[in-house]
Amino acid sequence: MAERFRHFLRTRRRPDGSAWTGAEIERATRGEVSRFYVSRLRRGLIDDPGFKKIVAISRAMGIPIEAWLDAHPDP
To answer: Whole-angstrom Cα distance, residue 53 to residue 62?
Structure first.
C-alpha cells in the first residue's frame, strides 16, 4: 500500500501543479486524513488504511478508487 501511495504522490499533482504534501491532503480531506496519517501511510507504517481513508484521499487527489487495487495504477 505504501508503494502505491508513494506512486500517487509522485505522479498526481495538485490543481496548481505542485506536489501534494501531508498538510495539503489534510486540508483537502477536511481533517479526515491527518498529515501525521499521510506520513505513516507513505512510510509503510499503515498496511490497511481502510476504505474511508482511501475514499477521502482519492477524492482529494483525483485518484479513481480502483487505482489502489489495479496492477497498473495510472488510467
So the answer is: 14
* Cα–Cα dist 49/33, whole Å: 10
CB atoms within 10 A of CB 22: 18
Q: What is the mean pLDDT of residues 53-63?
A: 96
pTM of the full structure: 0.87
- State the fold for domain 2-68: 434 Repressor (Amino-terminal Domain) (1.10.260)
CA angle, 6 as apex, 2 and 73 as ends, to 5°? 90
Say yes or no to pLDDT of 72 above 70. Answer: no
pLDDT at 1 over 90: no
d(CA 68, CA 52): 13
Q: Which grid cell sits at 8?
A: 500517487
